[in-house]
Amino acid sequence: MKFKKHLLNKIDKTFALFFITVVTLFTGLTRIVISGKLNTMDLNLIKLVHLYQHPILTKIAKIFYFLGESEVAACIVILSLGFLCWKSYWKEAQVLAISAMGILLVIDKILKPWFGRIRPIPGLIDVHGKSYPSGHISGNLMLYLYFSYLMGFYFPKWKAFFYTISIFFVMTIGWSSIYLNIHWYTDLLAGTVIAFMGFLFCITLLKSINNKYLDS
């Protein structure tokens, strides 16, 4: 009992430290973005990516951007919830449902309308809504990091592989967002910061309701 309490206190301290760090990073980045000091960097990075435009790359970018769409992510979440419930991983499913719904509400219903940042113009595909922070990056990165954590828990030898594949896949989604002129680079940075905060929330919640993850 004392050992469990010690671990929970350690988790709480870790969460608090990380939460403060992430909020500070996001707040600092947002202030700079709003001030316009990073506009030149954003434009230059988009121009750099566009130097290598090619019809084949455009098709690849559209595919990866589609794979990062909220509709696709929602299907993956639903299928994952079905699988977890089928295997009786009820607590893991609860955390997935709460975190997926939570980050969707935070990004699309609070942060994007609040900041109201306009997307780059013109985009190579028709996308509506505001751009800051990137929901593609925040939602997908948190989702796949959570999957990597669960898979790594049951297959420890493959943990690094799961995380590597997840991060590479989301980086490709991020590249496609810039290539298609849908997001600014700083949108992706902000989305990444929020994703890690969401991921830590997932793990902290999972450890608090399921003892077997306390030592992982």
Automatic annotation (TrEMBL):
SMART domains according to UniProt: acidPPc
Cite the Phosphatidic acid phosphatase type 2/haloperoxidase domain residue spans from the record: 93-203
Keywords attached to this entry:
Membrane, Transmembrane, Transmembrane helix
SUPFAM superfamilies found in the cross-reference section: Acid phosphatase/Vanadium-dependent haloperoxidase
Source organism, top-level taxon = Bacteria
UniProt keyword Transmembrane, yes or no? yes
Q: Which InterPro entries match?
A: PAP2/HPO, PAP2/HPO_sf
Ranges that cross the membrane: 15-34, 63-86, 93-115, 135-154, 161-182, 188-206
Under which name does UniProt file this protein? Phosphatidic acid phosphatase type 2/haloperoxidase domain-containing protein
